[in-house]
Write a structure and sequence with these properties.
Shape: elongated
Distance between the termini: 33 Å
Radius of gyration: 20 Å
Number of helices: 9
Order of helices and strands: HHEHEEHEHEHEHEHEHEE
Strand content: 15-25%
Structural class: alpha/beta
Helix content: 40-55%
Largest sheet: 6 strands, mixed
Number of strands: 10
Strand order of the largest sheet: 5-4-6-7-8-10
Length: 242
């Protein structure tokens, strides 16, 4: 969030706009402030800020949520496509029991990863093997231990802790990728994952402001319609997959 906000402030300033941060639980501030558009990067469809913006006719920018009403831009983060690509890579490497290590769902990103994983398992006739953790309060060793107890031969992590998972597997004497393959989501510190040889999905949320501002400014002048932009992502292969 900090990287995305910093990028948003820089891009907006270059185009003559200022950024005001509004607390998620204060929709009344939207009514009182002079706002051209509202960026809601982490929300669900029942968010009071979204409802208030739509009521006032303020264009919004959202991540991975289909806009059915009002004016706005949907930013497709690539989490859905990259999750499927990672699962296909693990399956191509011979994995038959792919486990998902996911954060406790609290953003659309977390929900997307688990939803796509369960859909993929259903399509391929596999039982979903999911362990939830809390990146701020949980311990990687416990989460990895729970997955290994389920008999997984591959781990897909949306937990963003690829290097820590890799080191925990090594500490337990797991031979990677012979015993367990590993793919992890990486939103930051991709260099460390690369140095350790962790196969990872590299997403770029900080690219959202640059890509969405032109469509948003177009909507501000036209005052109608909905638009969509797609963020870049890469699946970077390392030594943790076959």
């Amino acid at each position: 969030r900090a990287r995305q906000l910093n990028a948003f402030v820089r891009e907006s300033a270059e185009r003559g706009f200022t950024v005001t941060v509004v607390p998620a639980d204060r929709p009344d501030l939207v009514r009182r402030a002079y706002i051209d558009a509202l960026y809601l990067p982490d929300l669900d469809t029942h968010d009071p800020l979204l409802s208030e913006a739509e009521r006032l006719g303020i264009p919004v920018v959202v991540n991975d949520i289909d806009l059915t009403d009002g004016v706005g831009v949907c930013v497709r983060t690539g989490y859905e496509e990259s999750t499927r690509a990672a699962l296909d890579l693990l399956a191509d490497g011979g994995a038959e029991r792919i486990g998902l290590l996911a954060e406790v769902p609290y953003t659309p990103r977390d929900e997307i990863g688990e939803r796509v994983y369960r859909e993929w398992c259903r399509e391929h006739g596999r039982a979903p093997l999911v362990v939830h953790g809390d990146v701020e309060h949980d311990r990687i060793d416990r989460s990895v231990g729970e997955l290994l107890a389920l008999g997984v031969d591959a781990i897909l992590s949306t937990y963003q802790e690829g290097p820590a998972i890799y080191l925990e597997l090594e500490h337990r004497g797991v031979v990677i990728p012979r015993d367990v393959q590993l793919v992890a989501l990486c939103l930051h510190d991709a260099a460390l994952a690369g140095r350790l040889g962790v196969t990872h999905v590299c997403a770029h949320p900080e690219a959202a402001p640059r890509l969405m501002l032109d469509p948003l400014l177009g909507l501000l002048s036209a005052d109608i319609g909905r638009r969509e932009v797609h963020l870049p992502w890469e699946l970077v292969r390392g030594s943790t997959t076959r």
